[in-house]
Amino acid sequence: MTKSFTEFEVYQKSLLLAKEIFVLMNNPAFEREYGFKDQIKRAVVSISNNIAEGSEYNNNKQFIRFLRHSKGSCAEVRSMLILSNQLNLCSQQDTIKPIELSIEISKNLSKFIEYLKSRV
């Protein structure tokens, strides 16, 4: 890969998702849920960090492995958003955009993985 990870659209979208999650976690309902709040923040940051780290190996097999970790973190974030609704920590309306964005990122990661697999 000759591109910098910062140029990947999926990386840029993952930063948007992280921003959405960090804003949502400022909701007072999450104040007492430190473990929950910490976990979802770590999971969302993991998405972009794994894209960045994997790209630096200059090895498609390694990069694919890190992109798969990013996909897993996307699912973790989505699961925690769903749970936050069920625990009445936030409204469903608050989580629609981040859930949709996490699905979009996950799909983009899948396409990126398939592209890289064809180049291994």
Give structural attributes.
120 residues, mainly alpha, de novo design (two linked rop proteins), 30S ribosomal protein S23, ribonucleoprotein, ribosomal protein
CATH superfamily: 23S rRNA-intervening sequence
**What is the CATH architecture assignment?**
Up-down Bundle
Overall geometry comes to elongated
The percent range for strand residues is: under 5%
Distance between the termini: 12 Å
Structural class: mainly alpha
Mean pLDDT: 97
Roughly how many Å is the radius of gyration? 15 Å
What would the CATH topology be?
de novo design (two linked rop proteins)
Number of domains: 1
Task: State the helical fraction.
Answer: over 70%
Q: What is the tally of helical segments? A: 4
Give a verbal description of the structure:
The protein has 120 residues and is mainly α. The protein has a single domain (5-117), classed as 23S rRNA-intervening sequence (de novo design (two linked rop proteins), Up-down Bundle). The chain is built from 4 helices and no strands. The N and C termini lie close together (12 Å). One of its GO terms (cellular component) is ribosome. Keywords: Ribonucleoprotein, Ribosomal protein.
Question: Which helices and strands occur, and which strands form pairs?
Answer:
Layout: H1 9-24, H2 34-55, H3 60-86, H4 92-117
